[in-house]
């Protein structure tokens, strides 16, 4: 149910970076826990929040790519024998432009 709410919120005109980070962390940690037997979802969420400081201040945020990233992450099924990096949605690569 919360996935639907996330998607509905993401459809709006803006998608604040903080909202994206919260939604992305929830989606990616749920997926990692379900698909890759990650320690537990709460540990993943704590580690994800701690890593937010690694995003350089010089990067620009693209809310459209962020909406697509969360939407696409919510749709990923657990792959058989595929490395984690290979499953990250392409839209997620465009959320920040750090050139």
Secondary structure elements and pairings:
Blueprint: H1 2-10, H2 17-36, H3 41-50, E1 60-61, H4 63-75, E2 96-97
Antiparallel strand pairs: 1-2
Would you mind describing this structure in some detail?
The protein has 99 residues and is mainly alpha-helical. The chain has 4 helices and 2 strands. It has helices at residues 2-10, 17-36, 41-50, 63-75; strands at residues 60-61, 96-97. Strands 1-2 form a two-stranded antiparallel ribbon. The longest helix has 20 residues, at 17-36. The radius of gyration is 13 Å and the shape is globular. 17% of the residues are buried.
Key attributes of the depicted protein:
two-stranded antiparallel sheet; about 55% helix; single chain; 2 strands; mainly alpha; about 100 residues
Can you list the strand order of the major beta sheet?
Answer: 1-2
N-to-C SSE string, H for helix and E for strand = HHHEHE
In angstroms, what is the radius of gyration? 13 Å
Structural class: mainly alpha
Our estimate of the beta-strand percent is under 5%
Number of helices: 4
Number of strand segments: 2
Mean pLDDT score: 82
Q: How many strands, what sense, and barrel or not for the largest sheet?
A: 2 strands, antiparallel
């Amino acid at each position: 149910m919360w996935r639907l709410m996330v998607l509905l919120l993401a459809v709006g005109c803006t998608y604040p970076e903080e909202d994206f980070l919260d939604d992305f962390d929830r989606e990616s940690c749920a997926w990692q826990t379900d698909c890759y037997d990650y320690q537990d979802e709460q540990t993943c969420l704590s580690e994800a929040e701690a890593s937010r400081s690694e995003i350089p201040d010089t990067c620009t945020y693209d809310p459209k790519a962020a909406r697509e990233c969360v939407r696409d992450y919510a749709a990923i099924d657990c792959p058989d024998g595929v490395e984690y990096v290979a499953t990250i949605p392409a839209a997620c690569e465009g959320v920040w432009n750090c050139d």
